[in-house]
Each structure stands twice: as C-alpha cells, then as structure tokens.
Amino acid sequence: MWRGMIVTAVALVSLVGGGTVAWRHYEGAVDQVDLLGEAARDRPPPRQITIESAPRWSPPPASAQPGRNILLVGIDARPGEDQAGARADSIIVLHVSAGGDRAWLVSLPRDTRVEIPGHGTDKLNAAFAAGSQGGGGRAGGFALLATTVRQLTGLAFDAGAIIDFAGLRRVVDAVGGVDLCVDVRTVSVHIGWDEQGRQTAPFRLIPPTFRPERIPGVRPQVYEVGCRHFAGWEALDYVRQRELLPDGDYGRQRHQQQLLTALGRRVTSAGVLGNPLALDRTLTAVGESLTFDGNGRSVTDWMFQLRGLRPDAVTMLRTNGGQFNAATRNGTAFEQLDPVTLDLFAAACSDSLDAFARKHPDWVIQPS
Q1: Residue 20 belongs to what domain range?
Q2: pLDDT in tens, 199-213
Q3: pLDDT score recorded for residue 313
Q4: Region labeled Disordered — which residues (predicted)?
Q5: Total number of domains constituting the chain
Q6: Is residue 229 included in any domain, yes or no?
Q7: Is residue 132 included in any domain, yes or no?
Q8: The dihedral sign for the CA sequence 169, 230, 248, 358
Q9: Which end of the chain is more exposed for a tag (fewer CB within 10 A), N or C?
C-alpha cells in the first residue's frame, strides 16, 4: 500500500517521462499539511523516558542519522471520526538508504506499550486518537503519534503520510486489482453474507478484548491459501484481518507489507504504465488519498529524490521476530519491543539494516 502509494508513484512519474510537469497536474490534489511536529529531523528530540518498551540505547542525533525516514500511518476511520477519535490501524517506518537505492519497511505493533507525551502510558495506536482530540484533527493525531514513535525508536523523520483504508481501496481498484498469494487461511470478521445473499458482518466483536463471536446464519468471506487476483474491496478486507489469524496482528502486518509490494509491482507494470487511462486513474487516486508532510519539501521534490528506488529494492522486516511478546499491566495486555527489535531500530539510525537482515534472516518477510 505505502510503497505503491508513495515510492512507486514517485517512480511512475519519472518513468512516464512527464517529470515535474506531469505530476504537478496531480500534486494539487494531495493534502499537504504539517504533520511531523517534534518528530521532524530538524526539531530537538522529545524528552526520553524509562519504561519497558523504551530504547535502552542512545540513538545518534538526527543530524548524524544517515538515510531518510518516512512515517506512514493508515487509519480505519468510521463516519464521524475523520477529525477526532480514530486510532492508527497501521504504523510503518520506511527507511531509505543514504544512497537512495535501497529501502526497508518496518511495521510497529500498534499495541506496543509506550508513554504518550502528556497522556500517560497506553498502547501506541492510542497516540493518534489522543492527538486528534480537542480540535487537533488528523494533523494533531499524526504529530503526537510521530513524537511517540521518535521517542520509542530514536528515529527522526524526514516525511510523513496518512491514508485511510478507503483511499487504499481506491488505489487498488485504479490499477485493476493486485495479485497476492494467501499464506494462511484467513476468515473475515467484517464481511459475510446472510441466507438471502445480503452482505453483513459475520462476527460480533465483544469488548473489552473484542473477541469475535460468530453470528448464526451468516457465511463469512474466506481467503483460502493460494495465489489469486484481488479486487480493491477484497485486498482491503484481507489486510484488515487479525482476530482469527494464528499470529494476530503480526500476521496482519505481514499481509499489509505483502500488499504494498504487490501494489508496487502492479503500479510499475506495463498494464498501468502503458495505458494512459489507467495511469491517469492511478495518479488521481494516489493524489486524492494522501495527506502528506515533506518537512519543507514538496511531493514533487520527494518524487525526484526517490526516483531511483524500485519495488524489488524494498525489504520488509518484522518486529519481535513476528512473535508475541506480551505483558499485562493493570488488566490490559500490551506488546513490548524485545532487545533485538531495539537493535533493528539502532541499525536504522546508523543506516545498517542490510547487516541486520543478514544477521537475522528469519526477520525478513518474503514478498507475496
């Protein structure tokens, strides 16, 4: 999703030969606002804290961190939550090498226990909701989340972007769908059909843990193991699932990263690049689906900075090795970043993720 939405869109415009002039037709549709706040590279770092999930190392100052870091946030906003209340559903760090020809994607567990500045200890995804309250909107939500992530990982950010999941569906549909290989049987808790063939939710999510409870008489959408073509609604539904996966949110993170690489392949395929109508639909959908902060650089500037980055040069990495590292505090279950994950972020700070991946090959997620 993100690689296709930003990095591949960057490559697209360079490849089609229109350059800056071509993209400027679409750039105006991108909502460009100040998102990064204290997490921006040129801002002083936020105060450091001492809790279980905080780094136990001293990251280099932002000016000494080679490469570039982009924070990508997906929100699954319901009606009325566009300006306040939505939690960050997907939190991904994209680290681009100093040379600009390699990149790594790292998904942060949204249930990671963190201290949110000014709001106490909570799950990481709660930072977006907290910042969006009181008139903060999406920009305030992102800024507080980004500051929390910088505090957690030591990484300063050069750009940031938000997309809601409806925007992801539009982009997938614009490119004619994507090909994905389902690695584990995945049952949807969101989409199903009743006995009259009407679409309805097949499960109730029971608070406070949101345990899924099957609704009698409703047949859920099921994604069986194997390779197939996904329409936009299927891709969106597939990457939202976590409740019934054996590895829960880690499985969802893996599927989201696999989708973004598949989307990147599709966007740069001849079927899109060689079809002016498909290309126009894709660039229009990308432009209309993003809220972006280039930290003083325009979308066009970023496009040309990343023009040498191709989909096959992006490596996907797990946190916590894709295994649960949970702890319960005051009746609430949290994830905690393990020591190797802290090493991963230290490697990102020093632009040495290639060495980390060679040392921990089982932390690399294979493309779908």
Answers
A1: 2-178+246-365
A2: 999 999 998 778 899
A3: 83
A4: 40-65
A5: 1
A6: no
A7: yes
A8: negative
A9: C
